[in-house]
Amino acid sequence: MLLISDILVTSEVLEAFFRCEPERCRGACCATGEGPVPLLPEETEILAAAQVRLEGCLDEAGRALLARAGTSILYGNRLSAPLLDNGACAYAVTRSGIVSCGIQAAAIPGFPKPVSCHLYPIRERFRAPYRVLFFDRWNICRPALESGRRTGTRLVDFLEAALIRRFGCDFYRRLRDRLAGKESGC
């Protein structure tokens, strides 16, 4: 494990090789899971403001659900994306048999998709006093693990943009320095 500020990065995140291959997994992470996509409060505001823009990028079932339920729901005690009856995210779209993110397709300026999706398969949990980053390992990502090993792509490198977006450049630089065996001067 590695501690950077208040962020605890598990060994599995540090050691994993990963490179997503949607043509092999068919985008299963957008269509199945243990529950809806967690959303940050500011993300719910962005999605609500972009609802008209999103409509043209979503499948009919997603549009209908968002019209009924709104752009976010309360799931337990957290804000989340609504789920379709089949368990897929309301923002998921299927094109040529591959599920992808309709939010990405909408090209909302400065908002590629919810940060929890952008970081996937890294998940963030709060365990006072730390934020813990762990690898959400499950069988649908087997092709990505194989591809990462084959290409030598580390999970933290594959998710560089997402990690920087969520935790900042300094965090990512310190993470890469530690992985490279260097001590950061920060």
Question: What order do the helices and strands come in, and which of them pair?
Answer:
Layout: E1 2-4, E2 7-9, H1 11-15, H2 22-25, H3 28-31, H4 41-49, H5 51-55, H6 60-69, E3 73-75, E4 78-80, E5 92-95, E6 98-101, H7 102-106, H8 115-118, E7 122-127, E8 130-135, H9 142-151, H10 155-158, H11 160-167, H12 169-179
Parallel strand pairs: 2-8
Antiparallel strand pairs: 1-2, 3-4, 5-6, 7-8
Helix pairs in contact: 11-12
Give an overview of the whole structure:
- This protein has 186 residues and is of the alpha+beta class.
- The protein folds into two domains: 1-18 and 121-186, no CATH class; 26-109, no CATH class.
- The chain contains twelve helices and eight strands.
- A four-stranded mixed sheet has the order 1-2-8-7.
- A hairpin with a 2-residue loop joins strand 3 (73-75) and strand 4.
- The protein is globular, with a radius of gyration of 17 Å.
- The two termini are 19 Å apart.
Can you write the helix and strand succession as a string? Answer: EEHHHHHHEEEEHHEEHHHH
Number of strands: 8
* Biggest sheet architecture: 4 strands, mixed
User: What portion of the residues fall into strands of 2 or more residues?
Assistant: 15-25%
Into which percent range does the helicity of residues fall? Answer: 40-55%
Mean pLDDT: 90
- Count of separate structural domains: 2
Q: Order of strands across the widest beta sheet?
A: 1-2-8-7
Oligomer: single chain
Give the radius of gyration.
17 Å
Distance, first to last CA: 19 Å
Structural class: alpha+beta
